[in-house]
Amino acid sequence: MFQIKRIETEPFDDQKPGTSGLRKPVRTFMKPHYLENFIQSIFDSMDGGAEGKSLVIGGDGRFYNNRAIQTIIKMAIANRVKRLLVGRDGFLSTPATSCIIRKYGLSGGIILSASHNPGGEEGDFGVKFNIENGGPAPQKVTDKIFEKSLEIKRFFMAEGPDFPIDAIKTEKVMDTTIEVIDPVKDYCDLMEGLFDFDRIRGLFRSGFRMAYDGLHAITGIYARELFVNRLGAPDSFLRNCDPLPDFGGGHPDPNLKYARELVDIMYSEDAPDFGAASDGDGDRNMILGKKFFVTPSDSVAIISAHSRNVPGYRDGLSGVARSMPTSCALDQVARELGIKCYETPTGWKFFGNLLDKGLITICGEESFGTGSNHIREKDGLWAVLFWLNILSVEKTSVSELVKGHWQKYGRNYYTRHDFEGVSTDGAKRMMESLEGRLSTLAGMEFLEKKVTIADNFSYKDPVDGSISKNQGIRIIFDDGSRLIYRLSGTGTKGATIRIYIEGYTKKERELYQDPQVYLKDMIALSRELSEIEKFTGRKEPTVIT
Ligand code: VG1
Ligand code: CO
């Protein structure tokens, strides 16, 4: 039925994976051989090739998901993969994929998603490759894939009919056993083992109301199983929970700008007690209370501070970690708990070694990513369940819980200003100019604060000793304030400059302000120091979170 073909091909020069896999407009992925070259490069980067390996594939359901899955199934057969698990209907969230790799001891997984980037025919597509620990491939693996992509001359394809993936079944095709699996069960079982489902069920029974927005991306199918089927919530708690190839025309990014519908509900007079949303592939989360937004940096700190109330974390945390631009709220909690807080570059792959070695239990990024050692990816619904578990124990509102946290630890005011789609050249020149002035900035005073550190962040992995340079420019002040500048590694149009602005206070009367107001002078300073307008022609950011 299938015929193995060796197909001649020419390399593309733009298949370098970014912060999170290879991400391009879907039109690029649809070019002849584009996807095939990249998948073959992944296979070729494996020790001894893909032959005999076990892999899982699935995606967030965006446009081109199922075409790509058929291509990958046929390439896996041709490359003699031994065992291939495929999510039914081509669905698998990023965290569920990580869970499945670990649970079944697979060699790795391929996730088809451009995460929070828009989908549809005009949108983006992406391929992420995860390794046997369940986490994103580390730099040395992605470097190897890129190398292979630059020298590729052929790929292997089993030509034949499409393999039906709309029902659970196992079938052997040549050397490959293909198993179409339930995309939600394993992941939901894992969640049930970590959280106190009885208590959360009780919370829902007590009249507590929730609005969960799946943004028409992958998490809808998981949310329905978890909240409705297993936790007894009414269906009305769920919104936009049917995955659509174009995400209903929206931008599946759970933040104040793109999850507007949910934000409007949560700021209305009749707002429910709790609001949450996730992104395209299910690894991000946004947490809201009644007229209240929880910053992701606060969220990971609060989750860590309350972790003993959650069954899966009752024994305490070995350590915690945050990405460098994430606010220092987590550091305050670590200090109180007497554990170490590691600071890593942006991107989940940097947490992998720390988690594998048991050096940390919980970690997070300011970009709406929170997770723990239960898998090796950030996990949107895990964070939502964590909050529900905490609220069911504390019997208080989201805003009271957060305010109580600030009263105890002080508040790390935080905001991120994104300048999207600026000229690549202008962005590069801005970063270079800033870097060139770093040595003169150290020791200078601005806004009555002294610059204590001005550098380009470099990270030495404490486990394997690898060094990652140029991870973002930091200007740190003696009162705990910070200004951070980085270029995004996930955008697909021009460049995106991210400026992260942070200030810290413990004064009770200063705790409850709008971050844009509290940080006003620091925001102005961030513009001045970088001369962003001169280099990019932009005065204002496109997204503020
Ligand atoms: C962004 C975020 C980063 C996150 C990455 C992938 O990267 O800042 O924290 O890990 O997206 O998230 P960048 O390079 O654009 O700043 V996802 O949800 O794509 O897997
Ligand atoms: Co994502």
Structure overview:
The model has no long low-confidence stretch (mean pLDDT 96). The relative contact order is 0.11. The protein is α/β, with parallel strands linked by helices and 545 residues long. Helix 2 packs across helix 5 and helix 7 (197-205) packs across helix 13 (380-394). Helices cover 33% and strands 26% of the residues. It has 3 domains: 3-182, Alpha-D-Glucose-1,6-Bisphosphate, subunit A, domain 3 (Alpha-D-Glucose-1,6-Bisphosphate, Chain A, domain 3); 187-409, Alpha-D-Glucose-1,6-Bisphosphate, subunit A, domain 3 (Alpha-D-Glucose-1,6-Bisphosphate, Chain A, domain 3), CATH 3.40.120.10; 411-544, Alpha-D-phosphohexomutase, C-terminal domain (TATA-Binding Protein), CATH 3.30.310. Alpha-D-glucose-1-phosphate-6-vanadate (VG1) binds at residues 19-20, 115-116, 279, 283-284, 323, 346-348, 365, 367, 369, 488-490, 498. Residues 94, 115-116, 279-281, 283-284 line the site of cobalt (II) ion.
